[in-house]
Amino acid sequence: MVLISLFSRLAAQSDTVQVQPSQPDSLASFNSQKPHLNYKSLIIPAAFISYGIASLTINDLKRVNFSTREEINEHQPDHIKLDNYTQYAPAVLVYGLNAAGIEGKHNFRDRTIIYATSQIISAAFTLPLKHLVKEERPDQSNNLSFPSGHTAAAFSSAQFMFREYKDTHFWLSLSGYPIAVFTGIYRMLNDKHWVGDVVAGAGFGILSTEFAYWLFPKINSMLGGKTKNRSTMIMPFYQDKSLGLGWVKTF
């Protein structure tokens, strides 16, 4: 599926390390790390969100919403509630794989902080928008259709799985996306969302996880966590006919 191939391009920007010598002839150096947001990884979610917003006002995209619903209703699919559970399935897989010995990028504590942050951000995006936009659901049950919260949670979870395993088990890291796509499709099959709602939800979900990984170093620091790359080393040096000890600390 085209969506899955696009998602595979979403890669995290690794933290850059700058080395600045404390003095020209000294062996001591100071390394500093700052979290950077990879703006290329925001292109796809921004495109999805833009499509969803455009579907609220552009007539051609509105017709896509209605024609898709008409096509679905012609087949009269059974309404199942499986999408209530599949939205979290990729995240559950991450914890299951780690328990089975297939380790991801972060330990239990760190990935839990990241995932919880992503879900909080996702809810902060979707819940206020539902009440601001007030789009009626296809089944006319209420006016909280845009964007799809289930789809946002599903793609947030899928992006979480991708970020945890993309460096060590790339193909495995993509396996959360089909589950997320299934969740979005079933939101439409259950007559709860329009196409634009689901596409926008996918964008907000991916964006939420990207923000969560970007914010993690700051949140971890606030919680008193230790940085993996922090180390201290003492080494001898000889300068100007004098012997001494140099102290190097990497943050």
UniProtKB/TrEMBL annotation:
Signal sequence range: none
Sequence ranges assigned to domain Phosphatidic acid phosphatase type 2/haloperoxidase in this UniProt record: 112-213
UniProt KW Cytoplasm keyword: no
Record InterPro entries: PAP2/HPO, PAP2/HPO_sf
Keywords in alphabetical order: Membrane, Transmembrane, Transmembrane helix
Transmembrane helix recorded as keyword: yes
Superkingdom field: Bacteria
Transmembrane segments: 38-59, 170-189, 195-216
Coiled-coil annotated residue ranges, if any: none
Xref: SUPFAM superfamilies: Acid phosphatase/Vanadium-dependent haloperoxidase (SSF48317)
Protein name in UniProt: PAP2 superfamily protein
